[in-house]
Amino acid sequence: MSNAVYLDYAATTPVDPAVVDAMVCHLGPEGTFANPASRSHLYGWLAEEAVESARRQVADLLNADPREVVWTSGATEANNLALKGVLDACGGGHVITGATEHKAVLDACGWLETKGHAVTYLKPQSNGQISPESVAAALRDDTVLVSVMHANNETGVINDIAVIGGVCRERGVLFHTDAAQSVGKLPLDVKNLPVDLVSVCAHKVYGPKGIGALYVRRSPDVKVAAQIHGGGHERGMRSGTLATHQIVGMGEAFALAGSLKDEEGPRICALRDRLWRGIAALGGVSVNGEGAARLPGHLNVAFEGVDGEMLLTAMNGVAVSSGSACTSASLEPSYVLKAMGVTDALAHGSIRFSVGRFTSPEDIERAISSVVDAVNRLRTVSA
Ligand SMILES: *Cc1c(COP(=O)(O)O)cnc(C)c1O
């Protein structure tokens, strides 16, 4: 494989070896391979037990009741289920979200608009945060749902979901948060937070791709209409045979994140800060989202006088993204950075570095020299 330093943990993480071991036990003929919905034999009961044990692991990390966890194929589906499912169940209304949300929320909102629902897209402050005041000001009598992400995938900027959720609750409006980036990295205690729906997935926290969950509050009962029909699994909210191995992997990954939470964040944050000091020595660089609370592993840097795409090519020793992986196929600068008021030139010259569990201090030193060399070369050429 490539020997480039992997600093793209915000796009996805490798699966932790302990998680791989747990998953493998649920695949082969000697394993717990059966359909968890099979009620007539021990094979099925064992698979169901594995699924329910994983549901408890996921619920524990959120301090939720296991009955509040609905399995999905990932955070994209969880976001779709939350937004479309709530609007369907309540008969429609006005929705408020942020301009910096993941495409899974923005595109679902766009679809809701085509069905006649009104959506307000809030502009973030220049540090990337959605202010609770802007949410309060946008609330209307017909507002039914507010969706504001916990932490942004491009910048790592953290929104104050406790205050935003409080504003919603006071007005009797449901509050959804996309926590795909923050879960396992920031405390997220649904018993003590005014959130009604939370989207999470496994593959940003050292679990497998293709599995996620939607937390749906039971008390007071939040109504979500199914978007995938066929068999009535997951208490009617999401049909389809449960992917035992994926679910077990997600449970194990969430349990691991819970047990590492005090140790891992500070270690990753120290590596990220070392990376920034190394890059900052170049001059003409700034952090997108500066001044806001940010996730420990994220570092989104704007390089003056450098094109991000050229920089990506020039830094062949580092695997990173320009903007987010999901939109880097397009040559448009990041809509997240543009919404924050970053100029086109700086948005084009921005790179997201993200540090994670398997990053070593040596990786960071190698990355710094690769970035510094590449930027100096590009700046010399263009000067
Ligand atoms: C990765 C991500 C998603 C999409 O999750 P999938 O499980 O890949 O569908 C949604 N929202 C945010 C904030 C993300 O970072």
UniProtKB/TrEMBL annotation:
- Extract the Gene3D superfamilies matched here: Aspartate Aminotransferase, domain 1, Type I PLP-dependent aspartate aminotransferase-like (Major domain)
Q: Does the keyword Transmembrane apply?
A: no
Q: What class of enzyme is it?
A: transferase
Q: Which UniProt keyword terms apply here? A: 2Fe-2S, Iron, Iron-sulfur, Lyase, Metal-binding, Pyridoxal phosphate, Transferase
Reported cofactor(s)? pyridoxal 5'-phosphate
Q: Which GO terms describe its molecular function?
A: 2 iron, 2 sulfur cluster binding; cysteine desulfurase activity; lyase activity; metal ion binding
Among SUPFAM superfamilies, the record links this protein to:
PLP-dependent transferases
Enzyme Commission number(s) of this protein: 2.8.1.7
What InterPro entries is this protein classified in? Aminotrans_V_dom, Aminotrans_V_PyrdxlP_BS, Cysteine_dSase, PyrdxlP-dep_Trfase, PyrdxlP-dep_Trfase_major, PyrdxlP-dep_Trfase_small
Q: Which residues form the Aminotransferase class V domain?
A: 5-366
UniProt cross-references to Pfam families, sorted A to Z:
Aminotran_5
Could you tell me what reaction this enzyme catalyses?
A: (sulfur carrier)-H + L-cysteine = (sulfur carrier)-SH + L-alanine
Is this entry keyworded Chloroplast? Answer: no
Task: Tell me where on the tree of life, at the top rank, the source sits.
Answer: Bacteria
Q: Which family does it belong to?
A: Belongs to the class-V pyridoxal-phosphate-dependent aminotransferase family. NifS/IscS subfamily.
Q: Kindly provide the name given to this protein in its UniProt entry.
A: cysteine desulfurase
Annotated source species: Alcanivorax borkumensis (strain ATCC 700651 / DSM 11573 / NCIMB 13689 / SK2)
